């Protein structure tokens, strides 16, 4: 099966891995500078470092977490669209728009992090997800 909508999915997965690398290469030195020895840590979660590590370091971690949240719905809806045979044309363009907005959102959150702009990017990407969901529903229930 060849469906154009699979391409933006792969790009967002690759971007998520890149954000993970960015997170690691900034967080580990920040932890060392803060006197945190990861070999002595037990349990905990990434958010425990809020207030200990610099905010700009944590922004990358927060964004990585965000890429584990809403995009999971994106992947699911894109697979539904691909399997239904409607993953080309408009649906592929909407998916590319979603991915572009999520990448810009990541860069913004990881660097500047002004919430009003970040929220706008999130809202616009959510509208793309809503459109894809409606198209998936039409394909599945009326196709």
Automatic annotation (TrEMBL):
GO cellular component: membrane
Keyword Transmembrane applies: yes
Entry-linked Pfam families: MAPEG
Transmembrane segments: 6-25, 73-99, 119-141
Subcellular location: Membrane
Keyword annotations of the record: Membrane, Transmembrane, Transmembrane helix
InterPro entries linked: MAPEG-like_dom_sf, Membr-assoc_MAPEG
Signal peptide location: none
Name of the protein in its database record: MAPEG family protein
Organism in which the protein naturally occurs: Sphingomonas panacisoli
């Amino acid at each position: 099966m060849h469906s154009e909508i699979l391409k933006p999915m792969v790009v967002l997965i690759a971007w998520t891995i890149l954000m993970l690398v960015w997170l690691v290469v900034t967080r580990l030195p920040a932890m060392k500078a803060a006197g945190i020895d990861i070999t002595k840590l037990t349990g905990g979660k990434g958010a425990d470092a809020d207030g200990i590590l610099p905010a700009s370091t944590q922004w990358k971690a927060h964004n990585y977490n965000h890429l584990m949240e809403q995009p999971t719905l994106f992947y699911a809806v894109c697979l539904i669209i691909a399997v239904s045979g409607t993953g080309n044309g408009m649906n592929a363009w909407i998916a590319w728009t979603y991915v572009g907005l999520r990448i810009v959102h990541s860069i913004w959150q990881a660097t500047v992090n002004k919430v009003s702009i970040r929220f706008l990017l999130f809202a616009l990407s959510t509208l793309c997800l809503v459109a894809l969901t409606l198209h998936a529903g039409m394909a599945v229930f009326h196709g």
